[in-house]
Design goal:
The complex is a heterodimer of chains A (253) and B (321). Chain A has a single domain (2-205), classed as Rossmann fold (3-Layer(aba) Sandwich), CATH 3.40.50. Helices cover 27% and strands 30% of the residues of chain A. Chain A is built from six helices and 13 strands. Chain A has helices at 37-53, 69-78, 96-107, 129-136, 191-197, 235-249, and strands at 2-6, 9-11, 33-35, 57-64, 82-87, 114-118, 140-151, 154-160, 165-172, 175-179, 202-205, 214-220, 229-230. In chain A, a hairpin with a 2-residue loop joins β7 and β8 (154-160). Chain A is globular and about 65 Å long. By secondary structure, chain B is an alpha/beta fold. Chain B contains nine helices and 18 strands. Chain B has helices at residues 16-32, 45-52, 73-87, 98-111, 221-231, 239-243, 274-277, 297-300, 309-320, and strands spanning 3-6, 9-10, 13-14, 36-41, 59-63, 91-95, 115-125, 128-135, 140-146, 152-156, 172-176, 187-189, 193-194, 207-211, 234-237, 264-268, 285-290, 303-306. The relative contact order of chain B is 0.12.
Chain lengths: 253, 321
């Protein structure tokens, strides 16, 4: 069983998001990066499958500038066997089709049985790349996985639907599955894992050119059209003002 | 036609977000002098066609095929791809539903045409249209442009356009055909089911006290429960709290949980990620307490407090009792 896990490095939820001077993207200085949240669950799911079957290989794959090797090392430290780094100068490409093409080209010859990726990234939130790669490589696909069960060349996926519904979907391998957060409890790397990760192989791929099919023209802070009453003061003053608003304005007490 | 709207079936009814995409299409058609058609498919195609034909669109395309009677991502992607190839619209509109997220990326790959997702707004820019989407968990907006002459695949966020504004009319219905065989469908689906029933019905609550990741740890959840009790409301949460196992999924508000519109929604330590906001932005009054002044929840809040939930909430419960 050969499993690819696509991991993306994204700004952390508490990171500042400075916009660059021509408003085309962020100014990367001052951003603190982390592994995209649902990618972490995707990695854990792959590691658990490998451990349960006592056989196989988990390969973490990330696209971006050199800094993405931090999330690659994190994946290796948690137990992935090796890594592929698709090197790009910037991660400002907001085009799932061209990104998926780069991934598909880089991993086509690996013939993975499974590709796991996060459902969507916390930066762009396009939510397409894993499915497009699967389609490009002729694999079965499924999104929003909340559980997986593997047996004899078939993967059964519990998909999340809208309004609290779920559905089990079965498909033959190879398959590309996008993983929803919350389906397992991601592990922390052990000290031994961190030491061992340093010796693991990262294969660096430098892709050629690609067509861009969509791009960000302008990035900006949204202007709220809602008048928000900001309540300020000491904790006691805030509490008094809230109670006052509940009673006289919102009229719920 | 210039714009093809793909209508999603919601148990024999047009999915709410399908009606919203009709409004979006009518808005663009007015701006750019475009014609519109809507595609209905699946076992309820007849009923859907009747419903959609009551709107001001050029025509309804009705696609019936045994292999489309229940949803599969392979079947639906191939079907829509073939209709798009035959009809050559400039734009194909979808609501950004869970189903659309599942199969439309496959159409994008098949046609090598971009899919601009989850838009909250669109604006004409000469002979072109700019689509606005939220990024970085709604903290920033981005104006997106397609670098392709189309057909372009476009989806709209829930409530980006109001279904109330969809103009009515009378459209003709035309049957369309495609070539589909069972070897193209690689997945087998079981029936949809609900995991936990008999949970809290948050949809009828007048007051909701909802906790997010900002509550810090499981031990702090009872604090919010006490506040809900003190004010006579129901306790709810955002997804991260459920993922962490601090509350059961019956409490979850948002795209994968319940959608609510209470008289007051008190958001404690909730950042306001879009997946949560779509489930509560219809609330009459939104009160947000969050330590991060940049949290997107303040964009939609009627009352905002930048402060520590853990300090404010116990005192608030005390004051209310």
């Amino acid at each position: 069983m050969k499993i690819a896990v696509l991991v993306k490095q994204v700004p952390g939820s508490d990171s500042p998001l400075p916009i660059n001077s021509n408003q085309s993207w962020l100014d990367e200085n001052g951003i603190s990066y982390v592994m995209n949240e649902c990618d972490n669950y995707a990695l854990e799911e792959a590691l658990q499958i490998k451990e349960e079957n006592d056989d196989g290989e988990v390969v973490v794959i990330s696209l971006g500038p050199d800094r993405v090797q931090k999330v690659i090392r994190e994946g290796l430290a948690k137990g992935a066997d090796r890594a592929i780094h698709i090197q790009m100068n910037s991660d400002s490409i907001a085009d799932p089709l061209s990104l998926a093409t780069l991934f598909a080209d880089a991993i086509r010859d690996e013939k993975f049985d499974l590709i796991f990726s996060g459902l969507q990234s916390d930066d762009l939130g396009m939510g397409q790349t894993g499915i497009i790669i699967g389609e490009m490589l002729g694999m079965s696909t499924a999104s929003l996985a909340m559980a997986t069960e593997l047996s004899e060349g078939i993967i059964k996926v519990k998909r999340e639907l809208e309004a609290g519904f779920f559905q089990w979907v079965s498909m033959s391998l190879p398959a590309s599955i996008t993983i929803q957060s919350g389906l397992n409890i991601p592990r922390y790397p052990s000290l031994k894992g961190i030491m061992g990760a340093k010796k693991k192989e990262i294969n660096i791929v430098t892709p050629g050119g690609h067509d861009v099919k969509q791009s960000a023209k302008k990035v900006y802070v949204p202007q709220s059209d809602k008048q928000t009453v900001m309540i300020e003061g000491s904790v006691d003053q805030i509490v008094d003002k809230l109670v006052e608003a509940f009673r006289n304005e919102i009229k719920v007490i | 036609m210039d714009i093809l709207i793909v209508i999603e079936d919601n148990n024999g009814k047009v999915h709410r977000m399908g009606l919203e995409s009709i409004t979006a299409a009518q808005t663009m058609a007015k701006d750019r002098g475009f014609s519109i058609a809507a595609l209905v498919m699946g076992s309820n195609a007849d009923e859907l066609a009747t419903q959609v034909s009551n709107y001001d669109i050029g025509e309804v395309l009705k696609l019936e095929h045994d292999l489309l009677s229940s949803y599969s991502s392979d079947g639906y992607a191939e079907a829509v791809k073939q209709v798009v190839e035959k009809e050559s619209p400039k734009y194909v509109f979808f609501g950004h539903t869970y189903q659309v997220r599942d199969y439309v990326p496959k159409i994008s790959a098949k046609l090598m045409k971009p899919f601009l997702v989850d838009n909250v707004l669109m604006n004409s820019d000469g002979d072109d249209t700019v689509f606005t989407k939220q990024m970085f968990n709604a903290k920033l907006y981005s104006d997106m442009i397609a670098m392709d002459e189309g057909p372009l695949l476009i989806s709209f966020q829930s409530a980006a356009y109001s279904s109330d504004n969809a103009a009515s009319g009378s459209a003709s219905v035309r049957d369309v055909n495609i070539n589909l065989d069972s070897s193209m469908i690689k997945t087998q689906s079981e029936d949809p089911f609900q995991e936990e029933s008999g949970g809290v019905d948050l949809t009828s609550a007048e007051i909701i006290v909802s906790v997010g990741r900002g509550i810090g740890k499981e031990e702090n959840v009872p604090m919010a429960k006490d506040l809900a009790k003190a004010i006579g409301g129901e306790l709810a949460s955002s997804r991260p709290v459920v993922d962490a196992g601090w509350l059961s999924s019956t409490h979850q508000i948002g795209s994968s949980g319940q959608s609510v519109s209470p008289k007051m929604y008190l958001a404690l330590g909730i950042s306001g990620a879009i997946q949560h906001v779509v489930g509560m932005k219809g609330s009459k009054n939104i009160v947000a307490i969050n330590k991060d002044p940049e949290a997107p929840i303040f964009e939609i809040a009627d009352y905002g407090v930048v402060g520590d939930v853990l300090e404010i909430v116990p005192k608030l419960s005390e004051a209310l009792e």
